[in-house]
């Protein structure tokens, strides 16, 4: 009972069986579940007052989590739960986020061809020259690996657009095209897909900005699983792909830059890529094999966009492919720079009508996937990252290599027992792959390289210092991570 005599809105009973939380509330009552002081999920009880929440893996990377429940302005006392063990205990200290135990890592050896494939970044342009300039400059500054850029002006009436694009025409790796008449977003995107030839494609809106490692992050997400058709970045403002709060504009933490936020997600969001029945064309990686198999975007049904990528994704799903969210790739998105908010809503409604007619289960399938365990974990980890301190880039020093200043420094070496990784504080060995000495002695160089590739991905290493074995240097190159001896190629530049 509360002080006024009313029944408390908090659950009457809370049980934890090791993998699932079971709450007993008033029928249809709602309660917010907080883990380690950050909102994780909002649950609604059924007609019998039952509500359940599964935790198939730990969101924090630790076995123990503190649990609090909030409802009606009242918050329960914190208790502790342990993954794999039933019952609740006294709350303990909250630990910093650790790498997730369940993640999707790209197999660098098996997917070497995919990781080395050329990617064509296609940017349709219509008006909004200031946004276009910011987008292009960020892509030119932060793209590494085999890539080229195709910019297509869809007959923008603003003369400043042509003047702007003229400044980029002599940039190596960048092609500027122009439509003689306005074709609409979808036909313009299809023109870019055709101009890309046999390359994979990233569709990128002209009102976006990217950060370091953006393309390598999308590549990893797309190639971590063979049957992935597309990978979509997350954003501060991209509807269902907004983090940490869906369908909202999410400001970055106070005094953080966009680059700070992108780095925080790269390090903390994890690569447990959630699946969704669709992608989002604001920043969407498309595999060429799927484009060849099911065709391009439907420009007739969706001439101005707003539904064309959803339809394409549904066609891919019908052919046996799936789509993932690259939760560790943050892309800034202004939205509605070309058409304005009102027209965006009008076009969105028209596109949704077509989607409903073609794919009756589309909305239900999307709704069900938005609250999958992996998606809940992604949003929760972003909340935790934003509540923490500003991140530092991470470097890995191989063996006795000198450590640079201004970075979080990990140190790695090849020991008889396997690869060992020392934490930035220099006091704790946090990882030891191939830890059995007998097993390590029998490992092939390919197995050592696979272990090294996983370390680079798991700890979101930005750069490697030291004289790496040649096979390890090849791994870093495929992951677009610079080393002392082999730098990931910069595809764009000015010819002398």
Describe the structure.
The mean pLDDT is 93. Strands 10, 11, 13, 14, 15, 16, 17, 18 and 19 form a nine-stranded mixed beta sheet that branches. Strands 3, 4, 6, 7, 8 and 9 form a six-stranded antiparallel beta sheet that branches. A six-stranded mixed beta sheet has the order 23-22-21-20-24-25. The chain has 14 helices and 26 strands. The chain has 496 residues and is an alpha/beta fold. It folds into three domains: 13-90, Immunoglobulin-like (Sandwich), CATH 2.60.40; 112-387, Alpha-Beta Complex (Spore Coat Polysaccharide Biosynthesis Protein SpsA, Chain A); 394-493, no CATH class.
Features:
single chain, alpha/beta, Spore Coat Polysaccharide Biosynthesis Protein SpsA, Chain A, Immunoglobulin-like, 496 residues
Please give a quick description of this structure.
By secondary structure, this protein is of the alpha/beta class. The protein has helices at 112-116, 129-142, 159-166, 185-195, 214-223, 258-268, 288-294, 308-318, 341-358, 362-369, 373-387, 437-441, 445-458, 470-478, and strands spanning 13-16, 20-24, 30-35, 38-44, 50-54, 64-71, 74-75, 79-82, 85-90, 119-125, 147-153, 171-172, 174-178, 200-204, 208-209, 228-235, 275-276, 283-286, 322-333, 394-398, 408-415, 418-422, 429-432, 463-465, 482-483, 493-494.
What is the topological layout?
Layout: E1 13-16, E2 20-24, E3 30-35, E4 38-44, E5 50-54, E6 64-71, E7 74-75, E8 79-82, E9 85-90, H1 112-116, E10 119-125, H2 129-142, E11 147-153, H3 159-166, E12 171-172, E13 174-178, H4 185-195, E14 200-204, E15 208-209, H5 214-223, E16 228-235, H6 258-268, E17 275-276, E18 283-286, H7 288-294, H8 308-318, E19 322-333, H9 341-358, H10 362-369, H11 373-387, E20 394-398, E21 408-415, E22 418-422, E23 429-432, H12 437-441, H13 445-458, E24 463-465, H14 470-478, E25 482-483, E26 493-494
Parallel strand pairs: 10-11, 10-14, 11-13, 16-19, 20-21, 20-24, 24-25
Antiparallel strand pairs: 1-2, 2-5, 3-4, 3-6, 6-7, 6-8, 8-9, 12-26, 14-18, 15-19, 16-18, 17-19, 21-22, 22-23
Helix pairs in contact: 6-11, 13-14
